[in-house]
Write a structure and sequence with these properties.
- The chain is an alpha/beta fold and 286 residues long.
- The protein has two domains: 199 residues, Rossmann fold (3-Layer(aba) Sandwich); 69 residues, Helicase, Ruva Protein, domain 3, CATH 1.10.8.100.
- The protein contains eleven helices and nine strands.
- The chain has a seven-stranded mixed β-sheet, with helices on both faces. Strands 1-8 form a two-stranded antiparallel sheet.
- The radius of gyration is 21 Å and the shape is elongated.
């Protein structure tokens, strides 16, 4: 393991502060500073950028982000045991590391943005998907962040980046594909973590893209929830769960209804989401 600064090696930090990873918090620590530096570089140059990091633990990625030139890193950590280790990093990078002790699911991320902001994190596995969904469904859009560079279990990464007709294509694929350009950057072996998880991990990079403002998030989520609730059945059957005349939804999307949800392009889900409120109003008047 190479050193990127004059701070102690991460194994020493973990031993000194008793940072045994907590399974219930989804903690798996990355100790290879070459690897954390590679993650930090996925989004491009960090010069002048504020970075929000979730779950820094002993600070391996935090150190890489600062060494790569981030203007400031805001590290959100609920584990009080990690705060002394992060404080040592803050001393080594004066004025550039801000620590927030709290639950990542309760943070107002938009309020933390000040100038160019990116979210880069080795996310705790147990909150990775709800965090991503929350960031992808923010309004207005494009949101406050320039990009998201996040670590997921490989199977979750595949769902995020899946295309129509892929086995992994589903709700996350539609949300991510609608609002961002998403790609899998590289895989990370389980042996890179302490403790080693039972799965391979993947770094995913998402860049927000403009979308039409005439699609409400709540309507799109209702459509995709119904569509994928019975993913192996014809979408005509699945869409009955919306409570509106299915023929109206099919007509809006230009589909026959014999398709399965996993084969529909994102444009079809968007068209049905646009039509949903009018169909619901009409149906309530009958």
């Amino acid at each position: 393991m190479s050193q990127i600064d004059n701070l102690p090696q991460l194994r020493e930090v973990i031993a000194k502060h008793g940072l045994r990873a907590k399974k219930e918090w989804g903690q798996n620590f990355l100790l290879d500073l070459n690897l954390t530096a590679r993650i930090a570089r996925v989004s491009g140059s960090l010069e002048g950028v504020r970075v929000i990091e979730v779950g820094p633990g002993p600070g391996g990625l935090t150190r890489a982000l600062l060494a790569e030139g981030a203007r400031e890193v805001i590290a959100i950590e609920r584990d009080a045991r990690a705060l002394p280790a992060l404080a040592q990093i803050a001393e080594a990078y004066p004025g550039r590391l801000t620590m927030i002790s709290g639950n990542a699911m309760e943070i107002d991320y938009q309020a933390l943005a000040d100038g160019p902001t990116r979210i880069i994190a080795n996310l705790p596995y147990n909150i990775a998907t709800p965090l991503l969904t929350g960031w992808l469904t923010l309004n207005p859009w494009p949101s406050f962040f320039e990009s998201l560079t996040l670590m997921f279990q490989r199977e979750v990464a595949e769902r995020i980046c899946a295309q129509p007709s892929d086995d992994a294509y589903g709700r996350l694929s539609v949300l991510a594909g609608w609002r961002s350009d998403a790609r899998m950057a590289f895989n990370v072996s389980r042996e890179a973590f302490v403790p080693s998880p039972n799965v391979t991990s993947t770094v995913v990079h998402l860049v927000p893209k403009p979308v039409d403002a005439d699609v409400a998030i709540k309507h799109l989520e209702q459509i995709i929830k119904a569509s994928f609730s019975q993913r192996r059945k014809m979408v005509r059957q699945s869409l009955k769960a919306t409570g509106v005349p299915v023929e109206g939804l099919l007509a809006a999307a230009g589909i026959t209804g014999s398709e399965r949800a996993e084969d529909l392009p994102i444009s079809a889900f968007l068209a049905m989401a646009r039509a949903l409120p009018d169909l619901r109003r009409t149906n309530s008047q009958v």
